Amino acid sequence: MEPKTKNTTTSDPQAVSTWSIFKRMSWSDSRLLAITQAGCVEKFVDALVWIVYPIFLYQKTQDLPLTAGIISIYGLVWGSSQLITGHWSDRFGRQRLNVTGMMITTGGVLLMPMLESSMGWSISAAITGFGMALLYPNLSAAIVDLSQPQWRATAIGIYRFWRDLGYAIGALVLGLAAYFTQDLTVTFWVVGGCMAASTVWLAAKG
Length: 206
Description:
Layout: H1 18-28, H2 30-61, H3 64-92, H4 94-111, H5 118-146, H6 152-181, H7 185-205
Helix pairs in contact: 1-2, 1-6, 2-3, 2-5, 2-6, 2-7, 3-4, 3-5, 4-5, 4-7, 6-7
């Protein structure tokens, strides 16, 4: 007689519903909410970089390769710096690096319209990229730290839903700000203001 095998299709009595995790992530758990909103708002920066930076920098430089080069600095610094920023959070803690990343990114965004040289814009792009590198692996890691194995993947999926929705919300906010003011520089102040407010929230509740 063959030994009985465990029925893997039987529902787990300890399983947590997706809706309950969605509520926890979206409003009922103040720490998870603080991290989730930071993930959403920091994507306003990506919307700014990919929508506004090309137009803003080309208007300033009238040089498409130079514009592309400046924007590429953001991506290069962002991507390569994550090789160390994830390790830093394992050593020094998520919250410290996440709040610092929000602050640095805010500063980089606000610097861009205040500068008037390709070197200055490149430095601004690098600062913004480094700030985002502090955020990208470590906001997700903070969600992992605060979630249980039974619902961790669900929590990550919901976090990424809100985070990536930030692209769409950011694009809409930027478009409306530029349309009603007829001034691209306003979009930098709007994103900087949203990031600053989000940073305070994360620092207080995260």
